[in-house]
Amino acid sequence: MTVTFYGYPPCSTCRNALKWLKEQGVATEVKDITAEPPGKEALRQMARLAGLDIRKLFNVSGQVYRELSLKDRLPGMNEDEMLELLAGNGKLIKRPLVTDGVKATVGFNEEEFRQAWA
Hints:
It is built from six helices and four strands; from the N terminus they run E-H-E-H-H-H-H-E-E-H. The protein is an alpha+beta fold and 118 residues long. It has one domain (2-117): Glutaredoxin, CATH 3.40.30.10. It has a four-stranded mixed beta sheet, with helices on both faces. The chain is globular and about 40 Å long.
């Protein structure tokens, strides 16, 4: 199994998640989420595979999220508007984002990773 791993190299959570995957022997294609964020349809698909609402893909603790006042703006946005924002700026996406095309995980929780990727 090969997974696509969208992460941000300076992010310690991403580094820990990638280390965990490698320790489990999971083949990983690594992509810098800020240099090549997933497109709208890929994000829609990953949210569906992870069983999450699109809002859960937002990195709510990020600087860009705060700068754009998204806490106040998101409730009035439709799904396409949210996906457009996410696809246009990888720093808005909660990371790491991992998928094999059949399932997906958002963020790093070791138990969730064990269930999905071990």
